[in-house]
Amino acid sequence: MKYNIRTLKNGLRIVLAPMPGTETATVIAMTGTGSRYENDKENGLAHFLEHMFFKGTKKRPSARAISEELDATGSVYNAFTAKERTAYYAKVSSRYLDTALDVISDIFLNSTLPTKEITKERGAVIQEIDMYEDMPMRTVDNVFDALIYGTGHPLGRTILGPKENIRAFSRKDFAAYFKRNYTPVNTVVCVAGNFSEEKVLAKITREFGQLKHGNPPNFIPFTPEQDTPRVAIKEKKTDQTHFILGVPAYPYLHQDEYALLVLTTILGEGMSSRLFMEVREKRGLAYSVHAWAERYPDTGYFAVQAGVEHAKLEKTITTILNELRKIKRVKVSDAELKKAKQYMKGTAALRLETSDAVAEHAATSLINLGRIRALDEMIKGIDSVSAADVQRVAKDIFRTDALNLAIIGPRKDSEKLSRLLKSR
Hints:
Layout: E1 4-7, E2 13-18, E3 24-31, H1 45-52, H2 63-71, E4 76-81, E5 86-93, H3 97-110, H4 115-133, H5 136-149, H6 163-168, H7 171-181, E6 187-193, H8 197-208, E7 230-235, E8 241-248, H9 257-268, H10 274-282, E9 286-295, E10 300-308, H11 313-329, H12 334-351, H13 355-369, H14 375-383, H15 387-397, E11 404-409, H16 414-422
Parallel strand pairs: 2-6, 7-11
Antiparallel strand pairs: 1-2, 3-5, 3-6, 4-5, 8-10, 8-11, 9-10
C-alpha cells in the first residue's frame, strides 16, 4: 500500500492512499482529541460535539440536508468519539467522492452549532447513555476503566459522560472545546480508494488550509500505582454476570508491544485460543470470551472479557487465572506460536482490504504514532517475537498485585472475589 503524505502550512496532515483496483473511496477527517482531553465538568463534551457536527452548516442548514445529500449517493457515513481521537467519515462509490469530500469538509470546518439543536440533541445523547446502560456487555468496560485508572483521571471516565453534564452544556462550551482541541496540527484528513490524487489534494488543501494554526491539546499522563488486587462491582439485575479481568500493560511503541500482541492472541483471540477452548469448549462456562490489549501513548492494559451464569463466575475467573499462570510457567510451543503469528498476519491483511479500513488505519496511525505503520512493518514485528519473549512479557504483566476485576451483575461479594484474586 502506498501512502502519500502532505503537511499544510498550518500543520494539518493529508494522506492519500490510492487503491485503483477498488470501486469505492473513503474520506475521513480525524482529530487527536476525545474524552481524555476533558476535565470533569466537560466529560461528555467531545462526544456531544461530534453529534452537533451533523446538525447544520451555512451551506447545509439542517441535519436533514446533510443526511439527504449523503443518502442520495448510497454513502456509508458516520462519526465516532474515542478516548483520544474523534473522526468523521463517508465511504462512497468512487463516482461520488466529490460529494463525500465536500460534505465531510463542510461539517468539520463550518458547523454552526445552533442552540436549538443543542437543546434537542440533549435528549438523544441521554437516550444513547440509557441504551448502553441496558447493555452490560457494552458498559462493563466503563467499570473497568474507572477501576484501573480511577475516576479522577480522564481515562477512568466514560466517553458519553454523566447526564448532569449533558444537560448543562452550552453553545459556548462547544465552541471553546472546538477551538482548543480541533487544531490543524492535531488533525489528519485521509482519502483512500479510487480517485484523482491531484484533484483531491487541491480540494483538501483549499478547504482545510483555512484552519488557523494552534497548539495540539495536552493530556494528563497516567502512571499505574497498584500493590494489591482490586475489585469493582456495579450491582444490576442482569441475566448474566459480565466481567473484565485485566492488568496494566504497555503503551504504543513499547519495545515489547508485539510480544504483548502475540501473547494476547494466544490467550484470547480466535476460536482456537486458549481461553476460548478452556472457558467455552471444554467447560461451557461462557458463550463468548476474548482478550485484547488496549494501548495509549503513555499506558495500556491487557484484559479478558466474558459474560457467565451468576453461579459460575468464580469458576470462570479461576479458569482464566490458571491460564494466565500457565503461560507464565511454560513456554508456548513452536506450533502454537506459529499459529498465533499466522492468525495475526492474516487478520491484519484482511483489515486493510477495503478503502474505509485503509483510511481509518492511516489516520489513526498518524494520530497515535506520528507515522503510518505499514503492513510489512507489522508483519516484521510479529515475526520477530519468540516464545521466550511471550513468556517474559507474561511474567512481567500477570502479577497478582496488578489484577483488576470489574463486574456488572447482581453481586455484592467484592471481598470474596478479592480473596479469590489474591489466592492466585
